[in-house]
Predict the structure.
Amino acid sequence: MRFRNVRPLMGILLITLSVVALWWWENLGREQFIMESVMVAKDNIEKGRVIKESDFIEIRSMSESTVPGAITPKSLYQIKGFVANQYIPKLSQVVPKMFTEKGQILGEGKSIFPIKDIWIDSRSSSLRKGDVIDIFSEEGSVYMGTYPIAYVKDENEQEVVNTENNPSDEILQRHFSSSVIAHVEIIADLEEYKKIRDVAEEQNIKLLIIQKGESINE
């Protein structure tokens, strides 16, 4: 008699377990077994940008769609603080070879050149080492290229850096600096620099320095 009562209960239990297992597979299990967590660019990343954790977001990707060696949440530390050595479009997966250590960002034929303070008509007070800038003539009509910043210096040739009062290194959070910016030093080749120098000194045209940053709507 007891066995007869148990059999229907076992049947109900098995059906319930089957339903729960099916729900788990469709909502959680499938993703865990056939999808992987990878990091993708939150927005377009310009060549020369110093990489921060906030530059990436985590997504789930099908195994067959994951780039071999792609950076994951666990391996993000491998590129944090490195420099992008190529342009990376928004939502792209990334691999370590796309980045270079800060101390090794000078490519063949490149060097560090100063943009003198007397050449500069306008620039942001939030410029820091590792930022990427566009350089134009003062009225904005002549584009002279896009360059990574190697150093930001004050009038005493000391590097201008963020202070401990800054909540983060994001551009819009750089409220405090160690000193006032006098000039910047860019990474460029000799021909690029000669063109900038010619405009600034020979043609006596001031330079407009535009910081390339993230959208304020992100």
User: Anything to note?
Assistant: The first strand starts at residue 35 and ends at 41. The CA atoms of residues 83 and 104 lie 9 Å apart. The chain has two helices and ten strands. Residues 2-34 form the longest helix (33 residues).
